[in-house]
Amino acid sequence: MRASPDLADAPLVVTTEVKSALRLTAMNDVAARLGLKLGMALADARAMYPGLMARDADLQADRRLLEAIADWCDRYTPLVGLDVPDGLVLDITGCTHLFGGEVALCCNIVTRLARQGLRARTAVADTVGCAWAVARYGQKSIAVCVVASEETRAVLLPLPLAALRIAPKIDAQLAEVGLKSIADVIERPRAPLAARFGQNFLRRLDQAVGREDEPITPRMPLPSVIAERRFADPIALEADVLGTIEQLAREMSGALERRGEGARLLQVALFRTDGKVHRMEIGTAAPVRESERVRRLFAERLATLGDACDPGFGFDMVRLSALVTERQDPTQTGLAAPDHAAELSHLIDRFGARFGLRRIVRLMPHDSHIPEFAVTAIPAHAVKAVGNTALALRAEPCMQTDQETLAPIRPIRLLQRPEPIEATAEVPDGPPVQFTWRRVNYLVAHAEGPERIAMEWWRDSQGRALTRDYFRVESRVGVRVWLYREGFFQDATPPRWYLHGLFA
Predict the structure, then answer these.
(1) pLDDT digit string (tens) for 78-101?
(2) Of 238, 341, 369, 371, which residue is most buried, by most CB within 10 angstroms?
(3) Does 258 share its domain with 353?
């Protein structure tokens, strides 16, 4: 509790109305040394000390102060939960090494809060219940306490039952039957305790000793990816802040790329040296990973905020968080776009200078239905307009059948020349039930087709049209291939089978 300098030497209490009576909810050190207790009626306290000064509690202001402290504690861990009205719960798992250990982290918290005029007690334990109990009911002279895993039970035993976060009414009922400390109940039969004092009492006991998990509910969503930078000397210039954001975005892009994701909602938290925290969020129309783009977006945001984002004496920490991410698959950029004609021409020139222009070719579509003739290679430097030769990759629709579609219409890999195979079909015009390719026999599990592809009639100089019936086939061992049958059964020469491509 803060007090103005002129009241520092006077007993001061804060009161709240409880059941039509004003009761003490907070006090300064002078009032505490007089022997006053929290929960005492104000009338009783003034009967003992008529000169006692009182102030009404401002619960909304206290809540705002607690939330501001929680924002500030975000510098230690993103998992910060509120423990209204006067506490915070932090999950520091995996964060302590950044501050030199658990004791050093707690000392850092207590020292920094003391500079801001706030007195704090901290406790570190394996369970939330144990940490809460030690911080409030442990030795008052110790501001930092770290409880080892094997000492949790021993530390809790001498503490009063109020340390279990039970209702005051239950605490009073326990005291009436002579149960005042945790040691008095921890070994007692559970059924009578639950029947008389409620199941919640046992649940709090189990949470404190670690028999039941108690997760921390953070007041803010946990970011998918975080990158942060701490400064020994605070920074205040906008250029330094934007430069730091770009560096953090570059670090974050690596993690996002490994996960195959891009950020849709980004947040920057600027931690001032005096405890104030500025937060800025930007959303994107599509997943983004580029650090320069992230910098430009936050530059626009800073320009909009203006003086509202006052650096004060500087920022000693900057954190960039990806609050919302979305899948971002790799895409062909740069060379395939018409806007990058100059870039592609320069690349062709560099390759031509090193290997010779005749060795640099480009695949161009060719007007033919036959798959192996549908693409032709021409010298790269012979193409006049780059925009007319850009290739657009698209997912072609699959043929609809009664069964689930096996693969796209065209295979991923097309053999340079179709390889002859031996195949057997149940009916003459039907798909194969087995085939032999490169001396290995495959039994067919699923097949789709046929898809008839024939040569253009004007290219048939001998009166015979090249006709193929293609099938997409999956073997029982998972091999997916593109087969075709060439010719008709009514011809003098029986049809022949070929393997033309592989889907995977």
Answers:
(1) 899 999 888 999 999 988 988 999
(2) 371
(3) no
